[in-house]
Amino acid sequence: MKENNTYKRLYISCILLVLFVLTGCQSNSNKQVKLGQQYKDGKLTLPLNVRHPQLGIPVNISDYIIQISKIKSTSPSLYRKNEHIYKAIDAWINRSLGADEFNKVGLNSYEMAGQDGFGNVHLTGYYTPVIKARHTPSAEFKYPIYKMPLATKGRLPNREQIYNGALNGKGLELAYSNSLMDNFIMEVQGSAFIDFEDGSPLVFFCYGGKNGHGYSSIGRLLVEQGEIEKENMSIQAIKDWAKNKSEKQLKALFIQNRSFVFFKPQYNAEVKGAAAVPLIANAAVASDKSLIPIGSVVLVDVPLLDNDGQYRGRRETRLMVALDVGGAIKGQHFDLYLGIGEKPGKLAGYYNHYGRAWVIKP
User: Fold this and answer.
1) 285 and 63 in contact (C-beta within 8 Å)?
2) pLDDT, tens digit (0-9, with 9 covering 90-100), for 310-347
3) What predicted TM-score, i.e. pTM, was given to this entire model?
4) How many Å apart are CA 196 and CA 316, to the nearest integer?
């Protein structure tokens, strides 16, 4: 599961990293406000710096407690490794202490330096889609979702060849959706819940492999082709661009990314991260484990976005656990797990912002 999720995180993180390169790092104040980059003084000299956060009580204490219980029940070894921290934070919660009082339970708070050395940690978001599908193809539900082909000599076909039927007749079709765009976003996210709309439970389709061809970001391609302005680029912008495009136009874009992802169904499954622990929305993050090890507890000052994706100054404090990784989640960067379905998906499409973060440990 760890290997599966690593590829999953790699895919979404590659796209989000490109979006960051295209839209981040602006120095003017309007861009800083738009991205939630509020902190401009107080240079931090180390990757992690002992500083007491001047923040409110986390709003997601109940979600955090559920997340820790998931660690305890599904990964006893990870729980034991961090048990002293988890129990100390339990005491901090039970004593109703403030965000600057972790020292009263034997812990300290280490502020992350951020990507600019002023505490601005890059925040992106990811989610698990829910996709409508059928077991057999129809005029509407005609876009196959494939399982991984058995090992073969030579390379698997690229995306264009697959779209042209290279895998047809091989018994690899798991389901058929009614949206080529949904299938592509499912590949980017690395997994999805499939709703066959027949009264049966949703089926979790997790990462099952890839074809081995090189990956290209469609976000970068759309900017280069003048379809979307750099400052407006997001996954949501890509979805909006696709709404009025024909199947031919979508395929012409998608085939420029030769890489293709396959899936495998899991029944009665929960969404899990690299630690093989079920993820609780707004209580789990993906991190660079060389800086923030799996199982670490972090306090994050998160900028809140409106339904249109705009940041207008509202923020909240969340207590979260690092339970996932990603190929492009490096250094001072967290990918926030936002949940399942359309609403978290829309929010994840907008997130490319900054916030402060503290690692809570002895």
Assistant:
1) no
2) 888 899 999 999 999 876 688 999 999 999 998 999 89
3) 0.77
4) 37
